[in-house]
Amino acid sequence: MRKFLPLLVCLLLFAAAAPPAGAKLQLALLKYNGGGDWYANPTALPNLAAFCNQALGTDFDTDYGTVDVGSAELFNYPWVHMTGHGNVVFSSAEAENLRNYLIGGGFLHIDDNYGMDAYVRVAMEQVLPEVKFVELPFDHPIYHQTYEFTNGLPKIHEHDGEPAQGYGLFWEGRLVCFYSFSSDLGDGWEDEPVHNDPPEVRAAALQMGANVIEYAFKQ
C-alpha cells in the first residue's frame, strides 16, 4: 500500500477514482473490543469534518465511517479516530491488521476521553512493539498548521487537572499515531449542548483537530 499523498492531491485522486455517485472521502471511527465505549462522542466526527470543509477547503463526507480494527475495510480510510473511557483489547490478528495499516501509510488519532490511557498504551505496544510513545515538543509541526498552538494541545476538559499532552508513535520518521491525552478534543468537537463548553473552547478543539488532519495528509 503506497503512502498517502498530501491532502489536496489525495482528495483529487479520490474524486478521480469514480466512486459511487455522491460518495466523498470519510473520516472513520475505530471499533474495538474489551468493553470500552469506542462509540463515545457520536457528534464529534461530523462536526470536525464540517469544520475542516469550511476552514481547510476539504470535501469530507460529514457522515463518518465505522470500522472494526481487524477489518480489511480499515485500509479504505486514510485517517481513523479512536476514543473511549475504558478497556481496549486487540486480538493478535487485529493488532497485525492495524500495524499493517499504519506502516502502509494510514494515520490513527487516539483521543483519551478519560480512563483509557493505561489500556491504549498496552494495546499499541502490541501493534508496534518496536517503538514507544514520545511526547511531542511544542514546536512540532502538528501544532503549527493552519492554526497555531504555541503551547501544544489545548485543554478542553479537566481530567483531574493534569496538563494536556500530545504523544506520537513514529515509524521510519513518519508520525503514524497521534495520541491526545488529558485534553479531550473529541468532547470539544461535539454539539454545543452536549457539554456546554464555551465557544472559544470548542473553537480551540476544532482547530486542533483540523491541524491533526491537515498534518496527517501533508507529512
TrEMBL record:
Domain of life, per lineage: Bacteria
Domain DUF4159 positions: 27-217
Signal sequence segment: 1-23
Alphabetized UniProt keyword annotations: Signal
Organism: Neolewinella aquimaris
Cited Pfam families: DUF4159
InterPro entries: Class_I_gatase-like (IPR029062), DUF4159 (IPR025297)
Protein name stated in the entry: DUF4159 domain-containing protein
